[in-house]
């Protein structure tokens, strides 16, 4: 099905199942520990041996020698794979650094060997006997110094966020110089780690020349393709399975070392091998959200009308990598006739930078939305009113292009009203509650929606149950449930009559999970397959009118009503299709909008920041399952609190690695950090997005929330901090006098 | 540095390696030395013969195939491996299986099944107190134990008065749950689920 015209009325509009706050259908399995993840395939690979990964101890250089003799002789060892015996390996299309290093080392903790033994304990012990002698080379590890000579580079996050190297509208410099009120400020965001709870893990098993791999991956078809390319085998020789993924956040978008090492090890030792990357290797071995250095300039008339806006960002990556596209949202979010965006990319020999939840917008909005707060203060305007004043219903760079839907103003105003924003003191540092300095902050939320082709196969089984198969993944996003809701709505059956099978390359290729494109596109693909199945059902049952209804397990048209199951009486009926997109996504700008409101307390004595209240208002098309969507948003808000207050990969600029590479050193929010969170979804159905009239929401909740926290801290203390995270030492010596 | 076992090792000379091999010839085929232990898991005696290095976590996951208990970090940093030992929660990755001879271990599988959920499991489903599901078994085991701890009067860091009986308040539960990380950020919903089971207001 090709989606070329705005969606008309369709069966999803009934919203008898879709749009309801349905409990997740995978809930009983996940809450009882009976959902099998990649390392837990005891039934599929009962004799799997254990792999232990060894990561490089240098950031750049060569392995002079690697002595495996003692390890090979250790009890239980079945084999050791290094670049020396792995055979030729290509680099995946989505990988910047190769996944198995040696003799050249490209980054710290790049895999250089895997030791395989009969037991986990034996593999671990044997790995301790491997001796590696390195030739350490000097490298570029300091972003600030590397950016001094870095060129302008454009880029695409692969997740719906791209920006050219530099982009201009009007004459920014002239308009900025002439503007009566201006801001010119620099902001920094540090490197972030996905820190998903399930480590990178794979179980690999060869059946002749066919590879079966259970892994933890967001994008089945990308992973399968890159695994085939890396190994130099045909894609159809690989069955790639990820039915349950213990979190990804972009870290599992691509083929990673656990998968390739499990496959190589299983081939080497002639039996199934399972590998879970040790937690302390994960931060440096895998990808991360790159640090940014941003400069924002805004010039406005005295009434708050923006006349000039510039957003520049610098980031770094390994040779061949790309920039963090932190300026993208600034091209679209606010009006203004004179505009400039630019990105610089430095070469760094730190681990590979790549997508992490809302790549581009997450760090970009962290800076932009502080700048908007600062600018509102300079103008003497309320921050909500300043944003409302500069709303636009068209792409500011291409005024002929309208947003398909844009309810930013409603998000801002409704959020302000519900949060009690009018009680905020514009002058900071005014509110005390015992030892706490109390402040409120807000920010806009913005994230693009993108269309991706997505396929599914739907079968009406002889017992009248509906089976959906697609390689879509559920990384905690609720895919199982919303796909079941879609099929139930389309086929007119109860949710309990639908079975959903996901995350298997044996099923049609879907959008996959990333860039908040999963839910809307994957369900649209299921919609397309269901449309075909409905046609097949109608034909089988002898309905010749197009005007038939599927409801309550019955198919009705004219004066006939037949049980749906009758269509599959003699044989199951199967239909397969995919959603594909025409130009609507180019004719219109498809984006999602929201607002974040936050109240914090800052300890007047210690400077510790505690969250007191959080609210998000989102406008993101039709919300397919408000319960799961709300969870996506609060989860993103929680990650945003992390980026605002604590998350930072500390760079060792001497040796070129992230120092705090485990869950004790890399701090993420815990229960005690997060208060009750409120989320409001505005009623919306975007007929230009897809037949589901839905858009993404999973990343919207992250975009802007960090700045809302930072703005609340400023409102509490009167001390503006522009370098994330806002740890207490950055404002402690400037806090108000304790009365 | 923990990462990469080789990181701290200097290259040994060939003669060192040679000497070691002649004095203690390893047998690659040897299975590890094992020791007997009996764990009472989810009400059943489970006699095992284990490599003494085996953690309680790996005994459950790899030897008893109770993989509901998750390995998130293997270092006591994340809480995904939380189980109940004689009614108290512990990080099973920080404990060797041999330390638990005769101990009663309750894992997530022992709390309830998909067809017969424990009230805390049902509350997690109802309140959407999970997303990817990986930290979930640990969260649920911890949540069950936390309510028991509060009932038993075990004090916590956030109590204003350490001599007063703790209540199942929002901050009290959040404080006690803070050893269980959920990167998906389901905390607000987990607090609601726990409050529901505790009969308290979130």
Mean pLDDT of chain A: 97
Averaged pLDDT of chain B, please? 88
**CATH C-level name of the largest domain in chain A:** Alpha Beta
Cα(first) to Cα(last) distance of chain B is: 41 Å
- pLDDT < 50 runs, ≥5 residues of chain A: none
- In spatial order, strands of the major sheet of chain B run 2-1-5-3-4
Largest sheet of chain B: 5 strands, mixed
Number of domains of chain B: 2
Task: Describe the protein in words.
- The complex is a heterodimer of chains A (739) and B (202).
- Chain A has 739 residues and is an alpha+beta fold.
- Chain A folds into three domains: 2-35 and 451-587, Aldehyde oxidase/xanthine dehydrogenase, molybdopterin binding domain (Aldehyde Oxidoreductase, domain 4, 2-Layer Sandwich); 49-137 and 195-285, 2-Layer Sandwich (Aldehyde Oxidoreductase, domain 4); 393-450 and 590-739, Aldehyde oxidase/xanthine dehydrogenase, molybdopterin binding domain (Aldehyde Oxidoreductase, domain 4, 2-Layer Sandwich), CATH 3.30.365.10.
- Chain A is 24% helix and 27% strand.
- Chain A contains 16 helices and 34 strands.
- A seven-stranded mixed beta sheet of chain A has the order 4-6-2-15-12-13-14.
- In chain A, strand 24, helix 12 (479-491) and strand 25 form a beta-alpha-beta unit.
- In chain A, helix 9 (361-379) runs parallel beside helix 16.
- The mean pLDDT of chain A is 97.
- Chain B is an alpha+beta fold and 202 residues long.
- Chain B is built from seven helices and five strands.
- Chain B has helices spanning 14-23, 56-63, 108-111, 119-127, 136-151, 170-176, 187-198; strands spanning 35-41, 44-50, 82-85, 88-91, 104-106.
- Chain B has a five-stranded mixed beta sheet, sandwiched between helices.
- In chain B, a hairpin with a 2-residue loop joins strand 3 (82-85) and strand 4.
- In chain B, helix 4 (119-127) packs across helix 7 (187-198).
- Mean pLDDT of chain B is 88; it is low at 1-23.
- Classes of the chains: A alpha+beta (739), B alpha+beta (202).
């Amino acid at each position: 099905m090709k989606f070329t015209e705005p969606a008309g009325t369709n069966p999803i509009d009934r919203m008898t199942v879709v749009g309801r706050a349905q409990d997740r259908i995978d809930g009983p399995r996940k809450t009882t520990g009976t959902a099998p993840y990649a390392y837990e395939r005891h039934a599929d690979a009962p004799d799997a041996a254990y792999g232990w990964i060894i990561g490089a101890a240098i950031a750049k250089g060569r392995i002079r020698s690697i002595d495996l003799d003692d390890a090979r002789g250790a009890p239980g060892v079945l084999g050791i794979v290094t670049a020396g015996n792995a055979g030729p390996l290509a680099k995946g299309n989505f990988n910047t650094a190769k996944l198995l290093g040696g003799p050249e080392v490209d980054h710290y903790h790049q895999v250089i060997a895997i030791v395989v033994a009969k037991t986990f304990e034996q593999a671990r012990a044997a790995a301790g006997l491997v001796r590696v002698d390195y030739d350490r080379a000097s490298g570029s590890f300091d972003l600030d110094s590397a950016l001094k000579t870095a060129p302008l580079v454009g880029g695409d996050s692969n997740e719906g966020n791209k920006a050219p190297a530099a982009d201009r509208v009007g004459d920014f410099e002239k308009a900025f110089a002439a503007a009566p009120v201006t801001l010119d400020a620099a902001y920094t965001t540090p490197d972030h780690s996905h820190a998903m709870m399930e480590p990178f893990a794979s179980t690999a098993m060869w059946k002749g020349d066919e590879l079966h791999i259970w892994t933890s991956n967001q994008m089945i078809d990308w992973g399968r393709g890159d695994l085939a390319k890396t190994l130099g085998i045909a894609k159809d020789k690989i069955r790639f399975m990820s039915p349950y993924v213990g979190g990804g956040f972009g870290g599992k978008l691509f083929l990673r070392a656990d998968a390739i090492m499990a496959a190589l090890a299983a081939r080497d030792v002639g039996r199934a091998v399972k590998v879970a990357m040790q937690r302390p290797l994960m931060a440096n071995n895998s990808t991360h959200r790159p640090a940014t250095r941003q400069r924002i300039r805004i010039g406005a008339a005295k009434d708050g009308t923006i006349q000039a806006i510039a957003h520049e960002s610098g980031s770094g990556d390994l040779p061949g990598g790309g920039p963090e596209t932190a300026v993208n949202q600034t091209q679209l979010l606010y009006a203004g006739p004179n505009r400039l965006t630019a990105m610089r990319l430095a070469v760094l020999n730190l681990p590979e930078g790549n997508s992490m939840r809302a790549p581009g917008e997450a760090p970009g909005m962290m800076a932009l939305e502080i700048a908007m707060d600062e600018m509102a203060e300079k103008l003497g305007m309320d921050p909500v009113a300043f944003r409302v004043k500069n709303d636009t219903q068209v792409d500011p760079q291409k005024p002929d292009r309208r947003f398909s839907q844009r309810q930013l103003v409603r998000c801002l105003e409704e959020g302000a009203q519900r949060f009690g924003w009018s009680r905020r003191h514009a002058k900071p540092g005014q509110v005390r509650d015992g030892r706490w300095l109390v402040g409120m902050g807000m920010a806009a939320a913005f994230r693009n929606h993108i269309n991706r082709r997505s396929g599914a196969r739907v079968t009406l089984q002889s017992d009248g149950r509906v089976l959906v198969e697609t390689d879509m993944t559920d990384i905690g996003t609720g895919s199982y449930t919303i796909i079941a809701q879609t099929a139930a709505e389309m086929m007119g059956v109860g949710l309990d009559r639908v079975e959903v099978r996901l995350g298997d390359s044996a099923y049609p290729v879907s959008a996959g999970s990333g860039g908040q494109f999963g839910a809307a596109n994957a369900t649209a693909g299921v919609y397309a397959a269901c449309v075909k199945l409905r046609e097949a059902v109608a034909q089988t049952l002898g309905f010749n009118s197009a005007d038939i209804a599927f409801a309550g397990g019955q198919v009705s048209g004219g004066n006939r009503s037949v049980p749906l199951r009758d269509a599959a009486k003699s044989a199951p009926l199967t239909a397969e299709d995919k959603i594909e997109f025409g130009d609507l996504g180019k004719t219109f700008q498809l984006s999602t909008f929201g607002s974040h409101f936050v109240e914090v307390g800052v300890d007047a004595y210690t400077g510790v920041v505690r969250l007191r209240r959080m609210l998000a208002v989102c406008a993101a098309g039709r919300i397919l399952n408000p319960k799961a969507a709300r969870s996506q948003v609060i989860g993103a808000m929680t990650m945003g609190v992390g980026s605002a207050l604590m998350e930072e990969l500390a760079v060792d600029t001497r040796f070129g690695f992230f120092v705090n590479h485990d869950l004790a050193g890399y701090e993420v929010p815990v229960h005690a950090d997060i208060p009750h969170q409120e989320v409001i979804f505005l009623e919306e159905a975007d007929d230009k997005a897809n037949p589901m009239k839905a858009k993404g929401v999973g990343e919207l909740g992250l975009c802007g929330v960090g700045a809302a926290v930072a703005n609340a801290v400023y409102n509490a203390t009167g001390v503006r901090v522009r370098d994330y995270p806002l740890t207490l030492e950055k404002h402690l010596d400037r806090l108000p006098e304790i009365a | 540095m923990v990462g990469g076992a080789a990181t701290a090792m200097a290259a040994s000379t060939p003669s060192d390696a040679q000497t070691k091999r002649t004095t203690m010839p390893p047998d690659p085929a040897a299975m590890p030395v094992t020791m007997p232990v009996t764990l009472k898991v989810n009400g059943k005696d489970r006699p095992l013969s284990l490599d003494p290095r085996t953690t309680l976590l790996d005994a459950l996951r790899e030897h008893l195939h109770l993989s509901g208990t998750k390995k998130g970090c293997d270092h006591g940093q994340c809480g995904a491996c939380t189980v109940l030992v004689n009614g108290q929660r512990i990080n099973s990755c920080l404990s060797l299986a041999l330390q638990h001879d005769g101990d009663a271990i309750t894992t997530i599988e022992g709390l309830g099944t998909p067809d017969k959920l424990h009230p805390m499991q049902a509350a997690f489903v109802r309140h959407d107190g999970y997303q990817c599901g990986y930290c979930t078994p640990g969260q649920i085991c911890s949540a069950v134990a936390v309510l028991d701890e509060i009932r038993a009067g075990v004090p916590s860091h956030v109590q204003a008065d350490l001599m007063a009986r703790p209540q199942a308040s929002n901050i009290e539960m959040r404080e006690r749950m803070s050893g269980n990380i959920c990167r998906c950020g389901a905390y607000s919903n987990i607090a609601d689920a726990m409050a529901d089971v505790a009969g308290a207001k979130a």
